[in-house]
Design brief:
Distance between the termini: 119 Å
Strand order of the largest sheet: 8-9-10-7-13-16-17
Radius of gyration: 29 Å
Shape: globular
Order of helices and strands: HEEHEEEEHEHEEEEEEEEHEHEHH
Structural class: alpha/beta
Number of helices: 8
Number of strands: 17
Strand content: 15-25%
Largest sheet: 7 strands, mixed
Amino acid sequence: MGNITTVSEGSKKSDIQLKKFKLFNFLVPSLASLALFFVTLLFIGSFFYLNDSETGIKTSTTNLARWSNIEITNGSSSSVRPSVRGNGRVGFLEEGGGECDIFDGNWVWDENYPLYKSQDCPFVDEGFRCSEHGRPNNFYTKWRCQPKDCNLPRFDAGTMLEKLIRNKRVVFAGDSIARNHWESLLCVLSVAVSNKSSIYEVNGNPITKHKGHLVFKFDDFNCIIEYFRSPFLVVQGRPPPRSPPRVRFSLRVDQMSWASRLWRDADIVILSSGHWWTYHKTLRAGGYFQEGNKLKMNMSIKTAYQRSIETMVNWVNTQLDANKTRVFFRTYSPSHFRLTTTLLLSLSFYSLENLIKLVMEVLSQRPNKVDVLSVTNMTTRRKDGHPSIYNVRQENEPLHHQDCSHWCLPGVPDSWNELLYALLLKRELSKP
């Protein structure tokens, strides 16, 4: 009886072990398959991740496109993009294209971009060279503007230099975003010049860390492209006598910058203003507004900005020869600090939409000769294009200082120059 009992108990133990072994064999391939599946997903997914350095969050290209209302398509490499070839869009330069609003559109992924590499362009400020300051991807360089209702001509540096600005003078005036825009134009045009030494600063000034007036000449085309630092466009100077002690400087909202006299004989003038019209750069810094000889201590920043735009329009109308000089006003380029795209004109309430509305109201209320480069809406959707932490840290700045106002080059400002190119080319082709 004892032997039988022992054998029976051993059989039961063997059966249990056999079942465990079969169960283990069943699970092993399943676990292995699951592990392989997840590893594959991570591997594939790694190719589509963008590093959003402003928030520390990695965002996939698809998610960025969904957030920004961006299309992902293959771009055309032709010199002029095709019209009505399956996309229902007419060419902007073709008959019927003139009715197209080229500022209303999306960003599309284009493998033919960027138009240049920062390493190949000696005219880029160190702070805008994101790829050379450790940015781990170049996805931000692959987007181009695509209007909803038409196709833009593809930017052709040779055509612009030869047909549009040969023997001409182009002036940019504004703040450091205008400088960003100006450097972009130098770079996109330099692609067509094999001898880069034929492009030089006339006065021998270095482009990096120079804050004043810079004049670059494209010798082979006798073309001058200049930048004037004028953050407000209007006069910034000493306050009137007997002003309150807290007034450190005044902004004469009824008078254009002293440098404007140097802009008058240019063939193309690109003006911009906005980033310095904030509480921190005006009232808090001791800057108040002046009209005539009177200091307007109670004038709001919004009203002062509006008056400055009115002054700009009056200057264009009265001081420039419309037969010689074409003037563009580039609208505000949004910052994206802490995921906000709101311009704080007085610590408060003034949205980008209202800012654009204010500018357009001023321009529409009086006859004027100003063309608008309306880049605000589309640029709002490019939070990925800022240098963020991939820039040059200034003295006394925090170690992880982020620049979410300026733009990487190559990058977003190149699209502003593509729009400028399309408008200039349209005008040229419409001449009798």
